[in-house]
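pinned: reference chain
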Amino acid sequence: MSDIRTVLITGASAGIGEATALQLAKDGNYRLVLCARRIQKLEALKKRILSDFPNTDIHIFELDVRDKGAVESSISNLPSDYSKIDVLINNAGLSQGLDPIDTGLTDDWDRMIDTNLKGLLYVTHSTLPLMKECKNGQIINIGSIAAKQVYPKGNVYNATKHAVDALSKAMRIDLVEKGIKVSAVHPGMVETEFSEVRFKGDKERAKKVYQDFTPLTGGDIADVISYILKVPEHVNIDDVLVMPKAQANAYVTHKN
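pinned: its structure tokens
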């Protein structure tokens, strides 16, 4: 296996994706392929990475994972130096709204299903041909505590993350003979843009979600991902549930 591994990270412009890109650049033996909807944020991240870790090879491109055609075109036309993907980190995901099923907005449902589920499938399907030849590829899917426990008013978001959990297990079965590892990382409450996106820009409401306790950070999850990528070749970390100390499960959080 080459000392330098090429890693594709979706949703890399903020939160867990951004933190993971920074951590892997710090680790120093990865070539980074970063995509997200917000190209300006990716450009700022690339500048930061090259300032802090100038020897990093990095390629960025704008991508909305919901757009199947754009996914297929972008990945099939990666520059030659970045076209052999060793690691795929399916990080792009979001939640929209926090409503009971009878008053939820179908547009919100579509966006969650299209991003969290179909987008993950599109990216994985397009990346696998670039990975299968190496016989030592690796996929890390970012799930959620919502993949393990359904909570009130989380209905469709819960469903998409349960699907990510199921897909991770199914991918592991389908790809084991091809030498491709599949891991899933399921975070509890992480203070990123997640709640702000869920509440559609309501910063005050989002801020209250993380008050009076210490949530996880994107960096905490990036540390876990970094560890998964460092285990020996014969070892696979199948499934990781990561919670802040103050969160016991999807329903119980101790606040001071």
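why pinned: The CA atoms of residues 187 and 242 lie 5 Å apart. Strands lie at 5-9, 30-36, 58-62, 87-90, 138-142, 181-187, 239-242.
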